[in-house]
């Protein structure tokens, strides 16, 4: 009888400890395929944020304002009066983890082969759906919640 009481007490103490301090249940990251499937429910049909963008490569080092507009480049960002390039916006708690965003190369705009600061070069933003890691675990897997991210797409010339 004494053994049964001691065993029951150990079980109750173990239960109380888990309730008080929480039992550690391992939580895994969903696969990229699972996250892509969840994200696709928040996109227009046929759209993917992960689709490769033709001629778009992020810069390793940030570029500076060019001396003048390139009229021979095949890339719009080089021929623009408000030139831009791309960098990677990385967040390990978001899906997609890496998002390309534009950044303006000049403060002003290129006019007559020189930078004119009476006009401003500003990024044009678009809100895109992403999944943000919530920090909680459900059924052994981290939960991601739909969210919106403002992403610079290109740069335009504006009046101050």
From TrEMBL:
<dbReference type="InterPro" id="IPR029034">
    <property type="entry name" value="Cystine-knot_cytokine"/>
</dbReference>
<dbReference type="GO" id="GO:0005615">
    <property type="term" value="C:extracellular space"/>
</dbReference>
<comment type="similarity">
    <text>Belongs to the IL-17 family.</text>
</comment>
<dbReference type="GO" id="GO:0006954">
    <property type="term" value="P:inflammatory response"/>
</dbReference>
<dbReference type="InterPro" id="IPR020440">
    <property type="entry name" value="IL-17_chr"/>
</dbReference>
<protein>
    <recommendedName>
        <fullName>Interleukin 17D</fullName>
    </recommendedName>
</protein>
<dbReference type="Pfam" id="PF06083">
    <property type="entry name" value="IL17"/>
</dbReference>
<dbReference type="InterPro" id="IPR010345">
    <property type="entry name" value="IL-17_fam"/>
</dbReference>
<dbReference type="GO" id="GO:0005125">
    <property type="term" value="F:cytokine activity"/>
</dbReference>
<keyword id="KW-0964">Secreted</keyword>
<keyword id="KW-0732">Signal</keyword>
<keyword id="KW-0202">Cytokine</keyword>
């Amino acid at each position: 009888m004494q053994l049964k009481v001691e065993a029951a007490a150990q079980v109750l103490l173990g239960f109380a400890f888990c309730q008080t301090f929480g039992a550690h249940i391992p939580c895994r990251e969903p696969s990229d395929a699972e996250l892509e499937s969840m994200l696709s429910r928040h996109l227009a049909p046929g759209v993917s944020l992960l689709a490769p963008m033709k001629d778009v490569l992020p810069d390793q080092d940030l570029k500076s304002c060019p001396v003048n507009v390139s009229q021979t480049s095949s890339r719009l960002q080089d021929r623009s009066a408000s030139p831009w390039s791309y960098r990677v916006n990385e967040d390990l708690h978001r899906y997609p983890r890496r998002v390309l965003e534009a950044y303006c190369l000049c403060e002003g705009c290129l006019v007559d082969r020189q930078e004119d600061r009476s006009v401003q070069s500003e990024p044009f933003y678009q809100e895109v759906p992403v999944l943000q890691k919530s920090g909680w675990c459900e059924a052994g897997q981290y939960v991601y919640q739909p969210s919106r991210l403002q992403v610079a797409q290109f740069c335009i010339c504006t009046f101050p």
